[in-house]
Structure formats: C-alpha cells, structure tokens
Amino acid sequence: MNDTAFLTACRDLLGGDHVLRDDADIAPYLIDQRKRYVGRALAVLRPADAAQTAALVRLCVAHGVSMVPQGGNTGLAGGATPDTSGQQVVISLRRLDRIRQVDAENMTLTAEAGVLLANVQTAAAAEQRLFPLSLAAEGSCTIGGNLATNAGGTAVLRYGNARELCLGLEVVTPQGELWDGLRGLRKDNTGYDLRDLFIGAEGTLGLITAATLKLFAQPAARMTALAALDSPAQALALLNLAQSMAGPLLTGFELMSDFCLQLVAQVFPQQRYPFGEPHAQAVLLELSDNESETHARELLERLLTTAVERGIVRDAIVAASLAQSNALWHLRESIPLAQSATGLNIKHDIAVPVSQVPAFLAATDPIVQQIAPGARMVTFGHLGDGNLHYNVMAPAGADPEAFLRDYQAPVTSAVHDSVHAHRGTISAEHGLGQFKRDASAHYKSPVELALMRQIKAALDPLGLMNPGKVLPD
C-alpha cells in the first residue's frame, strides 16, 4: 500500500481537517473505554454523510486498508479500537449527526449513526413520543454504536433491546455500496432480514450510517420503588408477582446485592444507604403508566403490600417525587462508578434464563470464592431479562492490579463455564469485540461458528471490515 497516495486521496475526499494524523488529535480514538486496549492507526477519518462514507470505503478497498468503525467510543469490549499495526484506519461516524425525520403518526424516527442516544430521546420527546433505549452512557454513546453492539439497558423488560427497537437501516457494505433499508414498516416479509445481520455485528459486516427507530407513546406517569429482599430467589418471586399484577406496565426490574449499595455509600457518602438495616438483595422496579400517576401509585403500592404479606419483600421505599425517583436510579447507576473508584476488578456481562438466575448465583459464588478467597462480589443487573453484571473485586486491603493479574483468567473461565452450564451467554449486551472474541469459541458450536464465518466471507471477502473482532481466529 502507498500510504501517501491513500492519505492524499482521503484528504481530497474529506478535506484535510477530517483526516487526523497528529498524535494528540488521534489519541482519544485509539483507546477503549475501559483502557484495556491501546491501538495505533494510520489515520482517523471523519466522513460527513453516508455518500462520503461509501466513497471512503471504496477508497480503502482500492488501497487494501482495513477499517475500524467507531461511534462514541463507549464500548466495553474493545470492539472499536484498532490493532497495534498502525496500518488500520479508524472511521469515526460522529459527523453523521442529523435527525432526518420524525414521523409521529407512524411512531418512527430516522437518525444518522452519529446522533447521540440522548439526542434521539430528546427529538422523540419533542413530538410527545418516547424512544425507550436508556443507558448510563446515553449522553456520549451513538445510535450507530448502540445498534452495532445490540445495546440493552434498563428497559429491555418492556421494550426490548436495540434490535427490537430498529425497523430499518442504511448501511455501507464492505464493497462501498450504499444499501437503503430505511423502511418504517412493522411487516415486510420479502426475503432475508438483512437488517438483523448488521445489528450486533460490531461493524464486521458493514457500516451502519442511519436507522429508522420505533417510538412509543410517552407514559403519563412513572413510579419507582426500591425493595429489600433476603435472596435472589425472593427477587425472582417478586418479578413473577409484578408481571402478574402489572403486566406490560412493568418497565424496569434491577437487582442489586447489598454489597453494591454499601459500596456506593462508601465511595459516594452523599448517597446514603437507603434502608435502616442491611438486606441481602435489593430490587429497583419501575412502572410506566399511560393512565395517571394516581393509578400507577395505587398499583405499585398494592403490589408491594402483597409482596410484604407473602413474605417476599422485607422493606420498601416508594419514590414520592421525580427527584426521589431519580435518586433511586442514581444509586443503581453509581455502582459501576463506585467500582471504578476502588480499582480494577474482574467484570462479566452475562445472561442466563431469568428462571436460572438464583441457581446460577448459588452455584457460581462458591466457585469464585474457592479460586479467589475473600473476593468481594459486586452483582447487579437487569433481572427482568436475565442479564447480570457479575463482577469480582479484590479482597479488602489487597492490591487490585495484582488481583486482576493473578485471578482474572481462572475466575473468568469458571464464571463462563457456569454460565454455559446454565444455558446462558458470556456477553449479554456489551458484545464480543476483541475482549471476548476468543472465549466465544469455547461456547459456540462448530456449526454456529462455521455459519458465522461463511456470512463474514460472503459479505466481506477481503476481510477489511473491523478485522480481529467478534470472530475467533
């Protein structure tokens, strides 16, 4: 490859200001969110629109340059970080940041890949509509990245993950062709579902440049409560009760161990421990009601009263205002921040069938303790869809870096084996990237891996689209 000729052609196409090469300019694009991976790049390229993105891909193909697509760079599996060769280019899609259309009557919104998730939510709200995907990183993550990793978040229980919230895509293929699949249709039975190939593929099959997304009616009221329980089994019982009493009004159902709440209170003293005495588990649940706040409050209070009478819930706090509701959610959202403040830890983003969550925890916690005695378990997540962030911290007083070095491999292997034994997945919402790429080979069948490789070879025969991600060698 002639670097000079390639870069000159890129400048001619994009303009010199959007071909970044200075170390200071490109440094933020070369390291992942968790700072696990630091790559090098020939350049960071910033196309302005879908047509320019397609032309840029054709240019990369002509010069044999492999491409790493990147949105907000908030991914947690190293899927948007280049390798260390210095020969790949990062294609940043942040300039593709227009809301193209809001069709309130069709309940759809079409946004370009670089639009921030928070801006999609705001654009929907301006038309009295709801886009329900909600993540801690919503102020910095982009719609293209959300779809590339099939993001989940806190409202999957009611609305589904990113895949369920997308009706159509616009995609640049690995050959530089532009596929316009931006159809705002709920029904289209005219062949293979190409949309679903690209969602969750982490940019290995093409570059998502825009998406048509589902919108929903804005709820008239949201009611939030924090319930204290004795065990994950009781949390599952509360979930079953809530689903039977509230049905589709149940929007969120987040499980948190007592240690999670204690850790937040320790690191952030302004966020006080919420209960008068410790309880093994807590559940943050939310109802979204299209009728009224009064109806939502009465239903939530009736639900919790029934749960207390049946011995499921030991204590509960019902938010009396929006500020109190936000404070309860802030407790949940502060858990990862509290972990980061205490040093490195062994993280797992796993899912098992909802019915298997208590059994998984009962089986796996002792195994981890046997491998790493004294390890502290930071277990929290979206119980309503079976997704747990099963994280392991060093014992009190131990060196977190040494703990990570000595125990990450055996602990992760044991956790993944237990997940597999409970018919689960080693990556629920963060993707595989390069972090879990090789591990996935141990848990996917040869048939599944062969099919994935055949799809990759068919769509990207030159292997230039985000190589080294998702598919194990």
UniProtKB/TrEMBL annotation:
Keywords, in A-Z order: FAD, Flavoprotein
GO annotation, biological process: respiratory electron transport chain
UniProt keyword annotation of Flavoprotein present: yes
InterPro entries the UniProt entry points to: FAD-bd_oxidored_4_C, FAD-bd_PCMH, FAD-bd_PCMH-like_sf, FAD-bd_PCMH_sub1, FAD-bd_PCMH_sub2, FAD-linked_Oxase-like_C, FAD-oxidored/transferase_4, Oxid_FAD_bind_N
Obligatory cofactor(s): FAD
Record PROSITE patterns: FAD_PCMH
Domain FAD-binding PCMH-type: 37-218
GO MF annotations in UniProt: catalytic activity; FAD binding
A Pfam family it matches: FAD-oxidase_C
The family this protein is said to belong to: Belongs to the FAD-binding oxidoreductase/transferase type 4 family.
Name of the protein: Hydroxyacid dehydrogenase
